Design the sequence.
């Protein structure tokens, strides 16, 4: 539940005396901390849905990147080398707070590593979660919420340690 600044906020349209300069005390109740501001912003942005995830096919240097978010866990998106990546554009700013991924039977060890980055509203990528290990076998990983809640317009999955037996996502 977002917390609003103490005393509430006066809307610009509600100001009646715009010709008289306001003293700092008049504005004090409209000021909030960065944490409170972030809570207010996140409260107005929609949480990401499956439809957001599947809206635009993934792109990037992965082998068949579009299979990452096509809704078919039987399809494979895989890295072929270090720094290969897959990115998904949500088409709008959404809030994400956790993720999970599907494994492949061809993954026979857990030596490969990946990271997730999120693209902010200005189009700049930031690290979100690193050290992601591909799942061995055809099953889902547990949900991971270690990166916290972020507002973003897309995400990017990048191979940070390539291993020929641990690089596939369903």
Sequence:
């Amino acid at each position: 539940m977002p917390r609003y600044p103490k005393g509430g906020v006066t809307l610009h349209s509600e100001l009646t005396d715009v010709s008289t300069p306001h003293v700092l005390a008049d504005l004090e109740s409209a000021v909030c901390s960065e944490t409170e501001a972030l809570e207010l912003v996140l409260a107005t942005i929609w949480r990401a849905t499956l439809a957001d995830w599947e809206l635009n096919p993934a792109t990037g240097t992965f082998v068949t990147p579009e299979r990452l978010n096509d809704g078919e866990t039987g399809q494979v998106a895989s890295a072929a080398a270090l720094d290969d990546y897959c990115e998904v554009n949500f088409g709008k700013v959404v809030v994400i707070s956790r993720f999970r991924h599907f494994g492949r039977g061809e993954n026979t060890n857990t030596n490969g590593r990946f990271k997730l980055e999120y693209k902010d509203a200005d189009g700049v990528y930031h690290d979100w979660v690193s050290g992601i290990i591909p799942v061995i076998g055809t099953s889902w990983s547990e949900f991971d919420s270690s990166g916290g809640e972020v507002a973003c317009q897309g995400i990017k999955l990048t191979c940070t340690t390539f291993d020929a037996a641990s690089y596939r996502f369903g």
In short: The helical segments are 24-28, 34-44, 50-55. Residues 1-7 have pLDDT under 50 and may be disordered. The chain is about 15% helix and 25% strand. The longest helix spans residues 34-44.
